[in-house]
Amino acid sequence: MPRKRIVVIDDQEIALEAYLAFFNKFGYDVRVALTCEEGLKIINEISPDLLLVEYRLSGVGGLGVVQCIRQKDQKMRIMVMTTSPKEDIESEFKALDVFEIVEKPFSLEGLLGSVRTALKS
C-alpha cells in the first residue's frame, strides 16, 4: 500500500523539522514548505492526500492557499493550523470544506489523531 502523502506549509522552520521527523516516523510521505508559493508548487507536483497549512503566512496566507487549491481540487483533505481562536476564522473557511481547524499550541500526538481521522474519511 502506498504511503499517504502529506504537505505541511508553515513559516517556522523548526516546526517544519518537527512535523517532518514526527510524521515520517509513522510512515507518512511528508513534504514541507516555508512559503505559500513553495507549498503550492509541491502540491501541484505530488497531489497530496492531506495538506496542513498555517493560517498566518506571508504572501497569500493560509486562506489564499486553500482557495487556490479548491479551484482545482475539491477532494483534498485540508487542515488549518492557527494561533488565533478557531471561532475567529471558521467563517473564512466554511465554504472551502476544510476538514479541521487546529488551534496552537497542540501536541504532535493530538495532531496525529486528527491526521489519521482526516485520512480515513
Summary?
The chain is an alpha/beta fold.
Write the layout of secondary structure elements.
Blueprint: E1 5-9, H1 13-25, E2 29-33, H2 36-46, E3 50-54, H3 61-72, E4 77-82, H4 86-93, E5 100-103, H5 108-120
Parallel strand pairs: 1-2, 1-3, 3-4, 4-5
Helix pairs in contact: 2-3
Could you characterize what this model shows?
The protein is globular, with a radius of gyration of 13 Å. Strands 2-1-3-4-5 form a five-stranded parallel beta sheet, sandwiched between helices. The model has no long low-confidence stretch (mean pLDDT 95). It has helices at residues 13-25, 36-46, 61-72, 86-93, 108-120; strands spanning 5-9, 29-33, 50-54, 77-82, 100-103. It is α/β, with parallel strands linked by helices. Helix 2 (36-46) runs parallel beside helix 3 (61-72). It has five helices and five strands; from the N terminus they run βαβαβαβαβα. Helix 3 (61-72) links the parallel strand 3 and strand 4 (77-82). The longest helix is centred in the first third of the chain and has 13 residues, at 13-25. The protein has a single domain (5-120), classed as 3-Layer(aba) Sandwich (Rossmann fold).
